[in-house]
Write a structure and sequence with these properties.
Layout (H helix, E strand, L loop, with lengths): L2 E6 L7 H15 L3 E6 L13 H4 L12 H6 L3 E9 L2 E2 L1 H9 L16 E7 L9 H13 L3 E8 L11 H15 L1
Length: 183
């Protein structure tokens, strides 16, 4: 059975990012995957303290909601990550999580938990999926640096329109990505 860890980087519980993530989760579970979800908007999430504990120890010294994620990542087969893009950058919740991933590299900047498959989801107001390509490429670059393989990236644009609705095509793409990660 596949193990998938999910990181929801949106402050909107029922927003477009989380809807797409939930569809990917549904796809993964339909194929028998075990799924662990972290809501990065949880009040118990702290930022990196810059203590460098992780340079000489596995994991993070910060005892908070994210503390178990290192073991979950280590034991997972795949990761689903999603964030909206606000004001030309990923959401603050997602950025804080990226900072907390420093422990997935050892003291010599080598990946501690390589070989994970990743499905990344980005939602944005701009209808052009290329508008924030440097940002989406940068985040996927972190995953590559960690030794993870970005299997699929879904960019959902145009979300500022008052009548915006996720298309069946986007939902199907998220569902299928979740199914693929579970294989």
């Amino acid at each position: 059975m596949s193990k998938i860890v999910v990181f929801k980087g949106s402050p909107r519980k029922k927003g477009f990012t989380n809807q797409l993530i939930d569809e990917a989760i549904k796809g993964a579970k339909s194929k028998g995957a075990e799924v662990k979800i972290y809501d990065l908007n949880d009040d118990g999430v702290k930022g990196c303290q810059g203590c460098f504990h992780c340079r000489t120890h596995e994991g993070c010294a910060t005892k908070d909601y994210l503390q178990p994620m290192y073991e979950d990542i280590k034991n997972s087969d795949a990761i689903i990550f999603g964030t909206p893009i606000y004001f030309y950058q990923i959401a603050g919740q997602a950025k804080q999580w990226i900072d907390r991933l420093y422990p997935v590299l050892d003291g010599k900047s080598k990946p501690r938990y390589p070989g994970k498959k990743v499905f990344s989801i980005f939602t944005q107001g701009s209808p052009d999926p290329e508008t924030y390509k440097t940002i989406t490429d940068s985040i996927n670059g972190f995953f590559t640096m960690f030794g993870w393989n970005v299997e699929k990236t879904l960019i959902c644009g145009g979300t500022t329109s008052p009548d915006f609705k996720l298309s069946d095509e986007l939902l199907k793409s998220a569902l299928q990505a979740g199914e693929t990660l579970a294989k």
